Amino acid sequence: MSPTPGTNVLYYTTDKTGVTVLDDYQPLLAKVAFTHQDGTVNLAGIDHAGASFSAQGVPFVRPGESMPNSDCCLAPAT
User: Fold this and answer.
1) Cα separation of 69 and 50, whole Å?
2) Span 23-28, average pLDDT
3) CB atoms within 10 A of CB 12
4) What contacts 1, CB < 8 A, 6 or more positions away?
5) Which pTM was predicted?
6) Residue 18 Rama label (left phi>0; alpha psi -120 to 50; beta)
7) Which sign, positive or negative, has the C-alpha torsion 50, 53, 58, 62?
8) Alpha-carbon gap, residue 62 to 77, rounded angstroms
9) What is the average pLDDT value for the chain, to the nearest integer?
10) Which pLDDT band holds residue 59 (cuts at 50, 70, 90)?
11) 22: closest CA among 1, 43, 51?
């Protein structure tokens, strides 16, 4: 699966600046807004309080790939 604008993803972040995270084990809801050639994506999302946020240059993790120890977004399995 390749990320395309509009793809729903689960966003995991370690940097909570500007977002409300009520439970570290629950990801944030996001959509891909832009795909970079290096495989990273820009996101538009909603935090746990319902506020909108954006994130740039986020690694896109496909189902079955291991997640990094940093911010990333995971495409839900289809």
Assistant:
1) 25
2) 93
3) 20
4) 62, 63, 75, 78
5) 0.89
6) left
7) positive
8) 8
9) 91
10) very high
11) 51
Tally of CB atoms within 10 A around 19: 18
Task: Report residue 56: phi and psi, to 5°.
Answer: -115, 145
Q: Are 19 and 26 in contact (CB under 8 A)?
A: no
Interatomic CA distance for residues 25 and 67, integer angstroms: 14
CA torsion angle for 12, 36, 63, 76 (degrees, to 10)?
60
**Closest-CA residue to 47 (of 76, 68, 9, 18):** 18
- Can you list the pairs that 35-38 forms with residues at least 24 positions away whose Cβ atoms lie under 8 Å? 35/2, 35/3, 35/4, 35/5, 35/60
From CA 73, how far away is CA 9, in angstroms rounded?
A: 6
